[in-house]
Design brief:
By secondary structure, the chain is mainly α. It has three domains: 32 residues; 131 residues, Cytochrome Bc1 Complex, Chain D, domain 2 (Orthogonal Bundle); 83 residues. The chain is 49% helix and 2% strand. It contains 13 helices and two strands. The protein has a two-stranded antiparallel sheet with strand order 1-2. The longest helix has 23 residues. The N and C termini lie far apart (102 Å).
Length: 306
């Protein structure tokens, strides 16, 4: 018996495919399925994770956002009129000299050349007042006032915004002597400064302390509350409690519950739901039926009653 010869097509016979288009389906079906599957996986992975409650709540520590404050005592800051500073009076001259010696000389030096005893190692070095070059805000009255008001970021020059406007202008008069020549404080200079900083208005300047010191003070003032929070958080961590099933963060939950107690909030259930998840509770509490919720609320009230 003659053996049957098999011939294999090593290439697609496009003529045959075009005569019978249905053959395309066999070639591309598997690819279509794979593409649909890949798109489905991509869509699934892009779903809202907060909706699925899979991302832990992360509250930003606001104390890390701000630049550290300088301690200063507040009080009434008197405004100044142009007529009071339009010329260098003996009073202004004396005040300017006193302020320079107490606040500036240690860095800028007694002669204003930036070689004071505290200037060593400062980068950038303190301003040489005898030079007219490279003043950050300019060496005119408005520029110097801006520097005294705001300081210079990235340098050792801090803001002296607590000094009253009249005294700052007295200091500007004194500093201008290092540059030589005649210094005039004009109406235009006053108007430019006043347009930015409202120096003609008196105001109450609040006291301020560094954030780290404030944190220590807050902890000291709230020591009893903090201790109660720590104790309650330990209790809430007990997995034998029904309440433990609806808590993600015992510390936050303890803090929240004690504040609720302080504020005498009557509808505890609404308060919990409205503050999930930042109060340390999970959305599991929302999904429980009313009977289980009531048992959890009863348990919570028992825990915080003392």
């Amino acid at each position: 018996m003659e053996k049957r010869k098999f011939e294999f097509e090593v290439e697609i016979n496009f003529k045959e495919v075009f005569r019978n288009p249905a053959r395309w389906f066999g070639y591309v079906f598997i690819y279509i399925v794979l593409i649909i599957l890949a798109l489905g996986l991509i869509f699934h992975n892009q779903l809202d994770y907060m909706f699925k409650n899979e991302v832990a709540y992360n509250e930003i520590d606001s104390t890390r956002v701000f630049t550290e404050l300088v301690a200063k005592k507040g009080g009434m800051v008197e405004g100044v009129k142009f007529e009071e500073v339009s010329s260098l009076t003996p009073e202004l001259e004396k005040k300017g000299a006193e302020l320079y010696k107490s606040t500036c000389a240690s860095c800028h030096g007694e002669d204003g050349k930036g070689k004071g005893v505290a200037s060593a190692g400062l980068n950038p070095p303190p301003r040489n007042f005898t030079s007219k070059d490279n003043w950050k805000n300019g060496n005119n009255p408005s520029g110097m006032y801006t520097t005294l008001q705001q300081g210079i970021s990235g340098s050792a020059m801090v803001a002296y915004d607590y000094i009253p406007p009249k005294d700052r202008i007295a200091l500007i008069y004194f500093i201008s002597k290092f540059a030589g020549g005649k210094f005039e404080f004009t109406q235009a200079d006053y108007d430019e400064i006043n347009s930015q900083f409202k120096i003609d208005e008196s105001r109450i300047e609040p006291s301020q302390i560094p954030i780290q010191i404030a944190k220590v003070k807050i902890i000291e003032d709230n020591k009893d509350f903090i201790n109660k929070t720590i104790e309650l958080s330990k209790t809430l961590s007990n997995d034998k409690l029904l309440t433990n099933k609806v808590i993600q963060n015992p510390e936050k939950a303890a803090n929240f519950l004690l504040k609720v107690k302080q504020q005498n909030i009557t509808n505890l259930s609404e308060a919990i739901i409205a503050n999930i998840p930042r109060n340390g509770f999970s959305y599991t509490f929302v999904n429980y039926n009313q009977e289980i919720k009531s048992s959890i609320l009863t348990e919570i009230k028992e825990l915080i009653k003392n």
